[in-house]
Amino acid sequence: MPVPGENPKLDAETAVPIIYGISIAFVCVSSIIVALRLYTRYLIVRSPGADDATIAVAQVLSIGVSIATILQANYGLGRHSWLVSPSETIAQLKSLLGAMTVYNAAQIMTKMSFLFQYRRIFQEGGRTRVVCLYLIIFLGLWGVTQEVLVCFSCQPISVFIPSQAAVCIDSLTIWYLTSIMNIITDFIVFMVPMPAIRSLQLPRRQKILVISIFCLGFFTCIISIVRLFTLRAAINTTDPTWDNVPSAYWSIVELNCGILCASLPPLRPLLRHFGLAGLSNRSSGGRDDSYAGKSVGGSFKGRKDILSPTTVGGAYVYPMTTVTSGSQDGLHVNAAEVPLSPIYQPHRKGYGGSPGSRG
């Protein structure tokens, strides 16, 4: 290993600004979007649910991951190992352990938020809601298991607790296992609603829109795969504080992109609330179903495809529309925009008659 001063060009290299920039930028963007989501659900449509609570927890944990990653950079991550003192190395590894455990918990909470949102959207009694419930239980159990595994991995804990070296588990094995399970559960979670959506009795354009919204999460799967390929270099290296940088910032990107994908669809009512109904209408396939603060007198003429409005918090809104399908799953198309237990007043036959239940 080189020594300080032997190669001034290498000594001058630093990835610390990259770590700071990614850690701060991504967590700020996701925090703003989650705050807007909570504002929308609690104050505009007055319809908070378990999906909002879990994504809020995931966001708090994401902030913790960013703080732990910045602390790692402060203690040597992003510099070459020969420039990092032994005391800094210990502090950096402790921050790494904190980042790993909090990161895993945040990933589990983000996936649970998606599943709770599916249960909010799909009709009670349908297969999708049952599958989501089983997956939520599985994710809870797996979340506890992976935290235990991470705490028994050789790196970094055996460095500052030498007694663990005799009982620790190979770190690369643990990191691969948790990362691969993360990717697999990502794909499962994002595939859950697809069979029900494909069989929905919706116009083609609207069905494509609904599928596109549900497919947002697959973007995080791509990032998870990219991150997976950075893990080996982070373990099998003689310069860990330098070679672990990509794994650190890709973890930040992956986690916050997952939170963003979960939080963007519920913002439609916010767009309407601030007079951006045109944008929301284009995103909904051209339907004009804006509602915020407007009288609905005459707005239902020629509109046989929607239900009667009800009043929530002084603003006219449309209750959820239940669309039945061959998969026995009903989809509440506007579930993100109205209370969880709406009053159904169908104008025509063909819409399901059972109200949605709480997610």
UniProtKB/TrEMBL annotation:
It holds the Pfam family Fung_rhodopsin. It comes from the Eukaryota. The keyword Transmembrane applies. Its main location: membrane. One of its GO terms (cellular component) is membrane. The keyword Kinase does not apply. It is a multi-pass membrane protein. It is found in: Membrane. Residues 36-272 form the Rhodopsin domain. Keywords: Membrane, Transmembrane, Transmembrane helix. The chain crosses the membrane at residues 18-40, 52-71, 91-110, 131-161, 173-196, 208-229. Belongs to the SAT4 family. PANTHER family: INTEGRAL MEMBRANE PROTEIN-RELATED (PTHR33048:SF47), PTH11-LIKE INTEGRAL MEMBRANE PROTEIN (AFU_ORTHOLOGUE AFUA_5G11245) (PTHR33048). This is Rhodopsin domain-containing protein. It comes from Staphylotrichum tortipilum. The lineage of its organism: Eukaryota, Fungi, Dikarya, Ascomycota, Pezizomycotina.
